[in-house]
Amino acid sequence: MNLLPSTLLLPQQTVAKAGAVLGLTQAAAAFGMRGLLVYGRSLQRSGMLDAILSEPPFGMSVRTWCHAGGEPTVGAVDALREELRENRPDWVAAVGGGSVIDLAKAAAGLANAPENTAFYQTNGAAIPPAALPLIAAPATAGTGSEVTVVAVLTDPARNLKQSIRHPSYMPKLVLLDPCLLKSCPPATVAAAGLDAFVQAFESYTSRLATPFTRALSELALVRIAHALLPLYRGNSDAAAEMLEASTLAGVALSHARLGVIHGLAHPLGVRFHAAHGLVCACCLPACLAFNRPAIQRDLDDLKARHGLKVEALVNAWVGAMTLENPFAGGTVADRDAFIRETLASGSTAANPRPVTPEDVSALLDAVLARP
Q: Crossing angle of helices 310-320/276-306, nearest 10°?
């Protein structure tokens, strides 16, 4: 087995320190003097938006774009692409959660593309190289989108949640500033943190994992296990640890992919309109039982070396953070379409155990039956 993935894609520069985001406009000058900053509402409420824009370099012009909230849709990407075509910035910055970063990533990537965004969600559609450089500053510790080439988008018209990706979508500059997590509500901390933990676990056990990605996944697992609940309970000292661990998990998943938990999570999330991290947590027990024959050695190793009991820890978190299963007692009317979407996922393809249509159906039943 090679130590490294066959292709290693990382941001051109990553700055990890408190206050890093306040230097965004100064750093962005390397890309040009006209920019667009995409943000979430909480950034404005906290006063951080004004602080970031307070002292731009002389002659720099920065427009702003507020993400309306929720998961990014193909329509929202199209609207932002229109803004980019009209005002032609030199760079795009995203300061916010994974939805903000994915929105900006897709729009910057497809700014000059000839088709609408939904076209590029279709399997087999050729994705053109990114048109604009992207700066990413995550305001949640969860998705790891700041270090991936993927943008996960929802198309409500087709009831579809699916990613688009291109190597050129990797952000040029990443700012890991724990100060951005101060305004993060506990429910968001919980959902994002659960997502990061499951991403670390699935990339650790992925059939595409390498020693390089497993080392990052393992470090992320241990750090998240230590820091998530304190951060949820308001201990800001855990913010830097969670943020860096989430980013490490993002690097790992970007090169090793994930597993059937994420294969199920996207079609479930779009049908039940549930937070992605919570969806992943609810899918973990059934998927862990399914994969156990292929990953028992990994589970034993994590327990022996770190005292880490994956399923017990996630169950304890769900209880401590009073999270409820949004699927309990629910039904999926379009089961055949659900199964096709799950099997078509690159995450499912990387699962440590092969997955059949019958397996997906049984896993779906187990998730829906969980109290």
A: 130
